[in-house]
Design a protein that fits this description.
The complex is a heterodimer of chains A (152) and B (149). Chain A is α+β, with helices and mostly antiparallel strands and 152 residues long. Helix content of chain A is 38%, strand content 16%. Chain A has a domain of 106 residues: Alpha-Beta Plaits. In chain A, strand 3 and strand 4 form a beta hairpin. Chain B has one domain. Chain B is 46% helix and 13% strand. Chain B is built from six helices and five strands, in the order βαβαβααβαβα. Chain B starts with a strand and ends in a 6-residue tail after the last helix. The chains are: A alpha+beta (152), B alpha/beta (149). Chains A and B meet through strand 1, strand 2, strand 5, helix 4 and helix 5 of A and helix 1, helix 2, strand 3 and helix 6 of B.
Chain lengths: 152, 149
């Protein structure tokens, strides 16, 4: 085993996804470069990765989010951009976490609709979200009763 | 501002909505970042060393496979830290080459055992469900202490 020295220690990396009819990742990247002030910006096919100190990254995100609040989505990333353990340039094929993003981006327009409709919603309106079906499963006591009835 | 455990722990939608409505999402990326930025011995790809499964013993028994215990060393601390949780049931992508069905079951069991406020959801399949989905998350987060009402 070899010694490991982390790159970009003390920084945070965040993904910025854009799924908008009015804005492309490159529009977002141009705006981000304008206000980056030394923070590392990487443009991707779905948006950006921003790496830097937490305050700087949050400042950039707050500013970019204002461009299209209901169509820009942000999440943390563990690895810095271009890390050889994750970057598909080294691995071949899609990055492992990409499949999760691909799945959620496929339905994120519904979330955008939800965000757009929030201001018009009355505070007292009770939401009825898609909830998991409650199929009653066989409980242990009932199973024991069945077993006992078969044995006697 | 409450610490909200999200499941799936890599969810973009939940991570964004929790942060957007003024709380702190507890996602897998934070734990991975912690390991990636800590110097030590090289252990690619996720810097999970043999210490991981040992730490996982706090949440899973010794006869449980090391893969589950290693994963629990990431998720266990977040479950203990959580003040609330939002769970999307049956996410397809959390089971597969990068997922683990048993870990997912254990996570769901442990977070429910914590007795913190939990919002149970499914992914929205229509626009109308999307509207209700977002409204439910906002209502849930606003009701937590310190929420942006």
């Amino acid at each position: 085993m070899t010694q490991y020295s982390p790159r970009y220690a003390g920084t945070v990396t965040k993904y910025i996804f854009v799924e908008s009819p009015d804005m492309t990742p490159s529009d977002l990247a141009i705006r981000a470069y304008e206000i980056s002030q030394g923070v590392m910006i990487k443009e991707t096919c779905f948006g950006l990765q921003v790496t830097g100190s937490e305050d700087d990254v949050n400042r950039i995100i707050d500013s970019l989010r204002m461009l299209d609040p209901s169509h820009i989505f942000v999440k943390d990333r563990g690895f810095p951009p271009g890390d050889s353990r994750r970057c598909r340039a080294n691995l071949g094929g899609a990055r492992p976490g990409y499949f999760g993003h691909e799945f959620e981006i496929g339905l994120i327009r519904r979330v955008s609709k939800g965000l757009e409709s929030l201001p018009a919603r009355k505070p007292k309106d009770t939401p009825h979200p898609p909830a998991p079906s409650r199929v009653r499963k066989l409980d242990a006591a009932r199973l024991k009763k069945i077993i006992d009835s078969q044995e006697s | 501002m409450a610490k909200v455990f999200i499941y799936p722990t890599t969810s973009l939608i939940l991570s964004d909505l929790v942060a957007r409505f003024g709380h702190t999402p507890l996602s897998a990326a934070l734990q991975i970042r912690d390991r990636i930025q800590t110097p030590g011995l090289e252990s690619p790809p996720l810097q999970i060393t043999p210490e991981g499964p040992k730490k996982g013993l706090r949440w899973a028994a010794v006869e449980v496979p090391s893969g589950v215990r290693g994963r629990m060393s990431l998720y266990g601390p977040m479950i203990e830290e959580a003040e609330a949780a939002i769970i999307i049931n049956n996410p397809d992508f959390s089971f597969g080459c990068m997922g683990c069905a048993r870990t997912n079951e254990l996570i769901n069991f442990l977070i429910r055992k914590r007795k913190v406020p939990i919002l149970d959801l499914e992914y929205p399949e229509t626009d109308e469900e999307g509207v209700e989905f977002v409204a439910a998350i906002k209502r849930f987060l606003d009701d937590l202490n310190g929420g942006a009402a």
